[in-house]
Design goal:
The protein is mainly alpha-helical and 108 residues long. Helices cover 66% and strands 0% of the residues.
Length: 108
C-alpha cells in the first residue's frame, strides 16, 4: 500500500494505481498477465521520467533564483525596480523562471 500512496503523492491518478494493482489478477495466465502489464508499466515509467525531468529543471531554476536573491541580503533598498535600479536580481532575472515569478509582478 505504501507504493500506492507514493504514486498518488507524485500525481499518478487513483485509476492508474488501481489498474496496476488489479490487472494481473484478472488474467488467466502468466503470459497474458505479462502482455497486459507491459504497457501499463511502460506508461508509468514514461510518466515518472517526465516528472523527474520537470523536478530536475525546477531544482536548477531554484538554485539560480536562490543565488540571485542572496545578492540582496545586505541591500537596504526596497526590492523593486524603482527603488533599486541597479539591483543584480533585476539585471539577471531572465536567467530563472522562479526569479521572474518572485521579482516580476507581471509574470504570468
Amino acid at each position: 500500500m505504501a507504493v500506492a500512496l507514493q504514486l498518488g503523492r507524485v500525481g499518478i491518478e487513483l485509476e492508474s494505481v488501481q489498474k496496476l494493482a488489479q490487472t494481473r489478477q484478472q488474467c488467466g495466465s502468466g503470459k497474458e498477465a505479462s502482455v497486459a502489464m507491459q504497457p501499463l508499466l511502460h506508461d508509468l515509467r514514461k510518466r515518472i521520467r517526465g516528472l523527474l525531468d520537470d523536478l530536475e529543471e525546477l531544482d536548477r531554476d531554484l538554485e539560480w533564483a536562490d543565488r540571485l536573491i542572496r545578492q540582496c541580503g545586505n541591500c537596504e533598498n526596497r526590492p523593486n525596480r524603482q527603488d533599486c535600479p541597479d539591483c543584480p536580481v533585476n539585471k539577471n532575472v531572465d536567467l530563472t523562471n522562479i526569479g521572474r515569478l518572485v521579482w516580476d509582478p507581471s509574470c504570468p
